[in-house]
Amino acid sequence: MKRVLLFLIEVYRRYISPLKPPCCRYIPTCSEYAVEAIKKYGAGRGGWLAFKRIMRCHPFHEGGYDPVP
Fold first, then answer.
1. Half-sphere exposure of residue 20, counting CA atoms within 13 Å on the CB side?
2. Which of 14, 32, 50, 54 minimizes the number of CB atoms within 10 Å of its CB?
3. Residue 24: its pLDDT value, please?
């Protein structure tokens, strides 16, 4: 499952992300955060951390530096 999630993120980063303007409010970006979290914690917990981060990434949140715990 971990490899599948990492593959899907890579597909997003390579083919979908270049079509959109840069809009992530965090450092590291949400996709970088997701890859790091999944590699560190596995598909379950890492996927949950990435999901929570993506839900916070909107224009009304201040953003900033937010590393993987």
1. 9
2. 14
3. 82
